[in-house]
Amino acid sequence: MFAQLPDPPVDPILGLAQLLASDSSPDKVDLGIGIYNDENGQAPVLDCVKAAERWLVENQPSKRYLSSAGHPEYNDHTRALLFGEGSDAHQRSRTIQAPGGTGALRLASDLIRRLRPGGRIFVPGPTWPNHPVLLKASGHELVVYPYYDLATGALRFDEMMACLAGMTSADTLLVHGCCHNPTGADLDLDQWGTVADIVAKTGSGVLVDLAYLGLGDGIDEDAAGIRLLAERLPEMIVASSYSKNFAVYRERVGALTLVGANATDAALAHAHTLPVARTLYSMPPDHGAAVVARVLGDADMRRGWEIELRTMRDRINAMRARLSSRLAGQSARDYSFIARQRGMFTMLGITPEGVEQLRSDHHVYVTNSGRVNIAGLNNNNVDRVADAIAAVSRD
Ligand code: LMR
After folding, report:
1. Measured from the CB, is residue 69 less than 6 Å from ligand 1?
2. Rounded mean pLDDT of 340-354?
3. In the 8-state DSSP scheme, what is residue 380?
4. Which of 61, 98, 356, 371 sits a CA distance of 20 to 30 A from 130?
């Protein structure tokens, strides 16, 4: 059986690791997978995470099974963080811990397939490459809506809205809550309002992917879009992740939050989600969620986390500014959009040959799509990377 198999597909993000490993240059720069690296090019464990892990070693009473919903305090802290403690949406939502943001998305995808059989999912063009694969694995038909203009670095908002006007009450709209992956281009609050209007008008569902909360402009600032949706719409689903903002990537710490018209509806939706989780993985891994619950539930540790998060955010935004201004001096192409965008990513809009040249001539690794992980830049490599980008943009 195995011998007949064709070559497997190569993951557009994870697949880059092999290419990088085969480049022996000491100057190589990894701007592929979305990991936050500090000024020394390292992705260390956060101090608040270490402190919570020490606390758990001393105080965790048991490792017995929990329910398919995972860690109860983690779930409570998560929806309070998303919507604000005591807010209306906080009170009419329920959260289920999930194995990473990807696990939360797959859970949402299977749930939506059960609740809205035959409905389509509208996804932004471009989007995170795992979105279409994962959604199709649940059996969904996809519609790609125009989102971003690679040539200018601007949103295609009018075209997006024209496309979304074609949604029906069987369909679901997938949006990125902040720090859009791969473009870094987000909606402003007026645009979020227009999106809420079209969803209300068409009766479609909304699924928000929120993987970079706090890495754009701040926790409340980055949550403003989803909070507006929750205020204006009776229902929505949010797949969120702590992989990046707690730097707990391999621990798989995600969550699915269901907002209902009222607390009773949310509890019902929650009850229908538990059997979906049970058939996929039974229950999520505890360690990372227990760490996050401890940090968010302890005033001192939480303050420490917010400081560490601000350090990451400020460094990313400083790298955006420096990359953009260095490029301004030497590239005919206008790269000023890099400084205006938010989160880990931007798209260079260069040709596949340009991507190849970045690798072979300059040892700079971005994904085949031309996506750059800004959080892989530092003061030692940013000018060299800018010069390399300018060189391949000229050709
Ligand atoms: C990314 O887009 O690089 C991250 O979300 C990591 C991943 O799983 O693809």
Report:
1. no
2. 96
3. T
4. 356
Measured CA to CA, the distance from residue 296 to residue 303 in angstroms comes to: 9
Q: How far is the CA of 153 from the centre of ligand 1 (A)?
A: 21
Q: Which residue has the tokens 């279409």?
A: 132
- pLDDT exceeds 80 at position 61: yes
Active site residue 209: yes
Averaged pLDDT of the chain: 97
Centroid of chain to Cα 138? 20
**pLDDT for the residue 395:** 54
Going by C-alpha positions, the residue among 154, 141, 206, 151 that lies closest to residue 180 is: 154
**Are 322 and 384 within 8 A, CB to CB?**
no
Fold classified for 12-45+313-394: Aspartate Aminotransferase, domain 1 (3.90.1150)
* Pairing mode, strands 205-210 and 172-176: parallel
What's the whole-number mean pLDDT along residues 310-325? 98
Residue 73: how many CA atoms within 13 Å on its side-chain side?
13
CA-nearest residue, atom 6 of ligand 1: 34
63: annotated active-site residue: no
- How far, in Å, is the centroid of ligand 1 from the Cα of 13? 7
CA distance 384 to 381: 5
Pocket test for ligand 1, best of 11, 13, 371 (most atoms within 8 A of CB): 13
Kindly name the residue from 30, 128, 171, 192 that is annotated as catalytic: 128
pTM of the model: 0.97
Q: Which is the closest atom of ligand 1 to the Cα of 373?
A: 3
Tell me the mean pLDDT in the region 93-116: 97
The band of 330, judged by pLDDT with boundaries at 50, 70 and 90, is confident
The domain made up of 65-297 has a fold known as Aspartate Aminotransferase; domain 2 (3.40.640)
Q: Is 138 exposed, middle or buried (0-12, 13-18, 19+ CB in 10 A)?
A: middle
Q: Domain extents for the chain?
A: 12-45+313-394, 65-297
